[in-house]
Amino acid sequence: MLFGPIDWSLLIFVVLLNAPFALIQFILQEIQRKKEPGFIFPRHVKILGTTGQKFLHWQDFLTQTWGDFIFLPLIAFGFFSCSLNAWEVYIFLTVAMITIPIMIGICTSQNHKPDWGFPGGKAISWGGAAHIPYFAIYTAISVICIIKMFECQLLGWPLIITWIGGIGWSAMEYGDYVLGHFEPLKLKK
């Protein structure tokens, strides 16, 4: 049967498994912000030397809040609904390992606008360090879900829920782009 009952216990497990990993990024931001004032700038303060760009905290990003708490677990539900073969495990690990240096390179580049995770230059905050593997794992989970869709192994409710997660997270990312959260650093001339 294509649309049997939803495995609610798996869905709840995935949501509960994700929550502490998403929340720890915010907690680490707050601890470091209080422990090392000036490393993570105050929320929405104008970044010096820019055209008025604001320093954003974890809670300012739609992808961090709504995206990570609601939509990424829905994608992970699809991932955990399927079994992986050895080749897919290799793909998962490769994607995760490649994502880490790419993300660090992008977020510590000269045109990256400083934020809670990457406050400027080559600096990475505690929350940013926690976000790197989190992002890499979910990137790998998403790639495997796409593969499983093409293999027709992600079916029924897991497929629908994964699509809802993917569309929802993509909408949050689009919202962050529209709001200017991901725009490059714009220095005054």
Overview of the molecule:
By secondary structure, this protein is an all-alpha fold. It has one domain (8-178). Helices cover 61% and strands 0% of the residues. The chain contains 5 helices and no strands. It has helices spanning 8-35, 63-80, 86-107, 126-150, 156-178. The longest helix has 28 residues, at 8-35. The chain is elongated, with a radius of gyration of 18 Å. It starts with 7 loop residues before the first helix and ends in an 11-residue tail after the last helix.
TL;DR of this structure?
With 189 residues, the chain is an all-alpha fold.
Question: Can you write the helix and strand succession as a string?
Answer: HHHHH
Oligomer: single chain
Please tally the β strands and state the result. Answer: 0
**Spatial extent as radius of gyration:** 18 Å
Structural class, from helix and strand content? mainly alpha
Helix content range of the residues, please?
55-70%
- Shape, principal axes of CA atoms: elongated
Task: Domain count, please report it.
Answer: 1
Largest sheet: none
**Separate helix tally:** 5
Task: Please mark out the parts with pLDDT under 50 across 5 or more consecutive residues, or reply none.
Answer: none
Mean pLDDT across all residues, rounded? 94
